[in-house]
Amino acid sequence: MKHTLPLAAVLLLASLSPHGAAQRDLEQSGFSDAELERIHDGFEARRDAAFKALSGKPFVAAEKQPSLAPGRPPYVRAYTYSVTGFAMRAMWLNEQLEAANAAVSEMGRYFIGNPDARDDYDNFYWCADVLCRVVEFFGRAGSRAPGRLHPAVEDTVLEMMWLWAKNNSLVSDAEHEQSRTWMLVGSENHHLQKFCTCWQFARFLKNEPRYRDRPFDDGKPAAEHHAAWTAYAKEYFRQRAKKGFLVEFGNSNYGLVGMKGVYNLFDFAEDPVLKKRAGCMLDLFWATWAQEQIGGVRGGGRTRIYQGLNSTRAWLDELGRLAWYYLEVGKVSPPRDNDFTILTSAYRMPRVVMDIALDVTGRGVYEVRQWPLGRATEGEERNAMRYHVRTDAGGICRYSFCTPEFILGTALFEARPVEDWTPISAQNRWQGAIFAGDPDARIFPQCRAMARNRCYNAHWSVQSKGTLITQKLKTSKGAAEMRVWFSKPGLEHRIEKEGWVFAQAPGAYAAVRPVAGGYEWQDDEKDKGGQWLACKDHYTPVILEVARKSNFRDYAAFQAAALAKPPQFDRQTLSYRSLDGDALTFYADYSQPPQINGRAVSYAIPDNAFDSPFVRGGWDGGVVTIQKAGRRIVLDFNSQP
Fold first, then answer.
1. Which of these, 64, 165, 186, 520, is most buried using a 10 Å CB contact count?
2. How many CB atoms lie within 10 A of CB 577?
């Protein structure tokens, strides 16, 4: 169900902007210092208005759900979010304090008495970031309003933290000199959530007389755990800047879940190096997001994007919802779940990152390249909960072509067996185009997942500027036919000619061509906001062309240009001259890497980890420059403050 605020709350929030509509016209190029300062300084007012809109609403506990799998405890993540979210906003607003304390106390007793639920990786630490903030702000030594969290309830929370930490935090897991932090536990976002929780729980426990001398299950006290995780986090952040950032790349939902703990390290770390690197990590996270989004909607290649509404609808994008608070962009959404951590943090986007995000027109036309890791270490069990990500091999280049009217992007993967990739890199890869004009406007090719909304190593691709060619891989796992989504929002005048399907957005034209076998149209059972073009030949290459309207006289001229460039395909090799004039050669038998103008795509480790006009950083360097026009910051993950 889509979350919206009452009309009165929307009007209240909108009134905070001197422009009235609470969203600047992004077609105006260039943002002055004064404009950025106004938006920057308005963060707290927008947040406080959103909190006020929730004022007076009684606590309603989410139901505890059945187990996610045989042998596992009840699934209680929604329950924990309902408790911590209510407690944060009630104590922030200084209302319903008895109800808030009672809810936190009940949750604490539940987890104290149910260790299986407490230790399950899909339950407790998902809410730990917000719970820690409740203690930091409102506990006995609270920095905002001490005592709103009643002492007896705080004691219950600390006992819950102790029981979890002593079982789950191991100093040996904080080893980083050999692993360089590339041995992960679970998925990447789980790994981040867990070690950030270990760090903050140890921070509380080392200062509590009742717990500071008690040994954890590995025999070491809280202070030693806190020191170990502090050192680990410093190296973790440095390594991500050195090697292309996150493995679960471009994922706005898992990205937020992972980053929420980083916000806590930024706000509460006493070690100045850790605090600085946590801030740099957040700056880099938002900068890479900013350069590949339009109006808060992210484009470009992504991984772990579950099929269904997660692929087709922008309102499920967690980072896009937060763009309202940081940038006055998008629609007002009431705070929920981990939003409370981000909204109560002292972190703010740097002015240069804000400018990159807001000045869509001024960014112009450009390419983004980023080289994340994703290869699996040979010999390790593919679905193991503990595994190494290879750092000695490339294999991935994220490539996006960005214009004010659209962003087209993919990740260029080698055609490898599924076993060569970590599951977090291979799962539900997303590619395609988003368009200015409507947040749900998009065209994207995607192999249908046969079960559980998941498929792995589904496709490989080549892209040059506004031209993308993609094909289902025979080494995929759980992937059915290749399909192409055409949204109804933002696209119109769909026309079918000579094997091509044409559509237009407010500022762009698009064309799709399955090269062989033909296609049929399919309605989506759950989403009436578009249609699927389903390829009858599961392994046919598919061409997607996207171009700015300003490059053509009219829609008919765009269609004529595409029809004049028929692809040449002999079932093994596809030769195609793109609308931009590039010669693309695609080997549908997987025998060679694709070629662009006679040069094979390289998957080797590059000179740069980040390469765009706005974000640049050398491979294995640890120094990233973020710049636009006269604004510039250097994120040095190696230096001491």
1. 165
2. 15
Question: For residue 144, is pLDDT > 60?
Answer: yes
DSSP secondary structure, 233-298, as one string: HHHHHHHHHHTTS-SSTT-HHHHHHHHHHHHHHHHH--SHHHHHHHHHHHHHHHHHHHTTEETTEE
Rounded Cα distance between 578 and 24, Å, is: 36
What's the start-to-end Cα distance of the chain, in Å?
46
In this prediction, residues 121-125 reach a mean pLDDT of: 94
Q: Pick from 311, 353, 316: which is nearest to 336 by CA?
A: 316
Q: What is the mean pLDDT of residues 285-291?
A: 98
Helices and strands counted in the chain (H then E): 19, 27
Burial class of 607 by CB neighbour count within 10 A (0 to 12, 13 to 18, 19+): exposed
Count other C-beta atoms under 10 Å from residue 19's C-beta.
11
Closest by CA to 443, choosing from 517, 504, 506, is 504
pLDDT at 639: 86
Exposure on the CB side of residue 65, measured as CA atoms within 13 A: 12
- Distance between CA atoms of residues 371 and 374, nearest Å: 10
Maximum Cα–Cα distance for the chain, whole Å?
78
Answer yes or no: is pLDDT of 3 > 70: no
Q: What is the average per-residue pLDDT within 50-68? A: 96
